[in-house]
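User: structure tokens for this one?
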Amino acid sequence: MIDLLRETLSKEIGEKKELSEELFFSFNEEINDKVCINLDLLKNKKLTIECRKNCHINFFEIGENNSNIHYIIGEDSEIKMTLFSSSKGANKVYTFDLSNSANLTCAYADFCFGDENFEVNINLKGENSKAIWRLATLASNDDKKRISVSFNHEDINTYSEMNNYGVSKDDSEIRFLGTSTIKNKAKKSAAHQNARIMVFDERCRAEADPVLCIDENDVEASHASVVGKINEDHVFYLCSRGLSESEAKKLITLGYLNPIIEFFDDENSKNNIAIAIEKKV
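Assistant:
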């Protein structure tokens, strides 16, 4: 696995160079590898990552610092990005630009504590490009989480899919913002959104705002959003099987959020995510 930042930043610091406010990395054509990005080393700088033609890269992000990262994904490249947060909240902005036939899969396991502002902009610039986004988050205590995901379809036969799942408890707040834009001449494109938030307590605040902006006729577009209390019938059924109410709610929550683990390849990461969910519940 390539440690994207550690070697470069250690070299610059060791030679006492002045660190620039923006870092740029470029991966050659046809590279096939795993890459780790440690946000604690990024130290609030802007990072641009270029993946040239026919790259196959799994990016795994750790750390909790504020970040601004721009991915440029070349033709026929297949990029997988997994993010895991379990400590403090942060402000993060991500931008993805996809070329012809580029594929992007992103999964974010968000079980951090505190306030968070997370923004993702995915630009499907090339024909036949495809992006899939999956999120699982849990807000507790007085956490305030705002997560915004935008897809911009700019060429023909592009595809986007968003699935956001959240659980809000105590005095916490979750807000999902989803925007899918299919521009004129982006024919045969498809955009789908799904946002669901399960609310535990009366004091919680939860909101899911899906938006579709369609400027072309020959397309597919859909959205679904659900915000509601935990299903009392499910709780009653589990309690009738010998579980306490708190145990029943915990089991339902785990079933709601645990599917995000399937997007992670590393067994250590899977275990850490499962532990983080258990702690937050």
